[in-house]
Design brief:
By secondary structure, this protein is mainly alpha-helical. The protein has 4 helices and no strands. The chain has a domain of 66 residues.
Length: 120
């Protein structure tokens, strides 16, 4: 088990929320795929650089997209948020990233307008 992989308790909460449509080909383990998705989201690495222990990167990427289109991520978030409503109080502006050019503005605000109206 890697550092950020799902614990048994976390997996027990999420497993029933995942779609399970059996097809002819054997399916890659959902828990392993989910751990791969979380790995990419946490590290910011490209899908192609996904470690082999999570399975084929194409499978992980395709399942991430399929679940997003099916609304699975929203459903998981809502269930987890309902189980821990106090965690929502931890969201604040310190996690909102500023645009890269936001720090380059001139110091101080301009109080006077750029164009001054003159009466005739």
């Amino acid at each position: 088990m890697a550092r950020f992989d799902l614990s048994d308790r976390e997996w027990a909460l999420i497993k029933p929320l995942l779609p399970n449509k059996p097809r002819g080909v054997g399916r890659v383990d959902d828990r392993r795929v989910l751990n791969g998705i979380f790995y990419v989201l946490r590290t910011g690495s490209p899908w192609r650089d996904l470690p082999e222990r999570y399975g084929p990167y194409t499978t992980v990427y395709n399942r991430f997209n399929r679940w997003a289109k099916a609304g699975v991520w929203v459903q998981i978030f809502e269930v987890l948020a309902a189980r821990s409503p106090q965690s929502m109080a931890l969201i604040d502006s310190s996690i909102v990233r500023a645009h890269q050019h936001a720090a380059g503005g001139k110091k101080g605000a301009r109080i006077t307008p750029l164009a001054v109206l003159v009466e005739d």
